[in-house]
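Q: What does the assembly look like in three dimensions?
Context provided by user:
Components: two
Sequences:
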Amino acid sequence: MCGIAGLIHRGKSSKVGHELQGMLQALKHRGEDSTGYALYGDTDGKNFIMRFKVGENVGEGSTSVAEDVSVYDERKKIVDSYLSEMGAKIIKEERILPYSLRYEIQYDKKDLLEFSQKIESIPGVEILSMGKSLEVIKDLGNAKMVCDRYNLDKLVGTHAIGHARMATESGVDIKSAHPFWGYPFSDVSVVHNGQLTNYWNNRRALENKGMRFMSECDSELIAVYIAQKMREGASLEEGMKESLSGLDGVFTYFVATKDSLGMAKDTMAAKPLVLYESDDLVAMGSEEIAIRSILPQEIDTYDPFDGEVKVWQI
Amino acid sequence: MANLKNTEKKTKSQAMGMHTEVLTGRTQQKFFNPDEAENFYYFGTYDVDFNKRTDLDVKDMSAAEANKKIDSLMSEGYGTIVIKNPQGKHSLGVGILNKLNLIFEGSLGYFGMGSCDGPIVRINGRVGWSCAENLMAGKVVIEKNAGSCFGAAIRGGDLICKGSVGARTGIDMKGGTIIIGGDAGAFTGFMMQRGRIIILGDVGINLGDSMYDGTIFVGGEIGSYGSDAVDAELTKSDQDWLRRKLKVAEIGENFDVSKMKKIVAGKKLWNYDNLEPTEKKGAI
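A: Here is the predicted structure of the complete assembly.
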């Protein structure tokens, strides 16, 4: 089933980590195999923040194979050496969990394709996000568990999207969890609720164009599809509108960039979405109770119509 | 499957353009016989007094607790119950088979007022997906917007949304009336089998797709017609009925019903008078 939630503050910052945790926890009955956050924090915009993993969470319920922590250490060493080779300087390093790391990197090149390909050529290593504001945090468990594990409660920023996952199409692991980074674009992330039925056809076509897939989760296709459209020169909104006919199946998805948040709903409106919109805040989720977790007072909400695409700026 | 009944005969209502089906088989209408009243027992009904009123704050209650409390209050004779702080909770007010004045001071989540028979409900907020699904009788008024599958499979009663509604409004409905003050999404009236839908605003694509019977009235623009849905003539009796219905629903004051479009099923897809296999054996 899965649940998605997102919010964007316009003209101010807020504790988006705490707010999104409340929204996703309200949706935990839609799935708590894994939960993911894409948080757009307040930064000085000088350095890249790279969230990456060197292994999987092999705790209860995971479909991943256990590995020794020494394997993670070895992979981290190779990542560090590759960064050095590419002229990227590590400013700050945090190892939040044995398999999950956060680096602040000084890196001057704009094209992240070559950079990402190099890092992800290390078996078992995946960049969860790369951006100057975006941080993707995803792991097994419900929203509160992941928030506590990664200490997201205090993160201040302008907007965020998140996902509570019930695994149906692929494994219970971090690589299949949402949000997906819009590789290789800085600060682009996607969450999705639904099923895509032309996944393999689209995947083959996109792989032929040089795009990469890290999982077999159909939702990853949306991130790659939008990223490819942007590579070809489309704006975010144009790429999203094209996805309504380019993607088959039922879907409601959110895309976020450094300064914007968008939603798209398939032409059959088969997946739910409730939307609250005011001058200073847009909040949306698969169910109204997600919005109520941050806005308990009586508010006006509505369901976007079929085939609707909307984009908001901070 | 062979049709055992003669369906060529046209009823008066069909001749009038109301397109109501012929009820000649196992589903034909049976009326309640007052002589049998003493043998009639309706589970879960109470004698309530509409003047006996109480408030119920459900902020810290689960949906099950809130619904049990409503039932308990009805058993104590309360005929008017005001629900405070529903805060978008799912499945509130379901399964009420009673006369009752129920007022929600706020919004409901999914499946609000599902499978009800008889209550008069006012929701001073919004409702999520599948509001009033399977409504048998009564009246449900929503002051703001509603989600998708609004009034799915209702069999009777009036369901009124003063705002806009999502997709598949009135899907599979088998009776009753749905009135929308704003716009409606795609697949409105999808597979509807009987009843009427009135939309004062615009409606999305595939209106009345695969509808068996029933009537849809639209005041605004239509995205597209669904398979089997066609225009029909808006008669004077249609207009009189629309005016009366909108007046009773307190919606669309001064709305010009004479410009509304009327949509009905273009094919005879229904086969309600077909017998069950065991009954066919008996008939043969």
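Follow-up: The interface with chain B takes residues 267-270, 272, 274, 287-289, 291-292, 296, 298, 300-303, 305-307 of chain A (CB under 8 Å).
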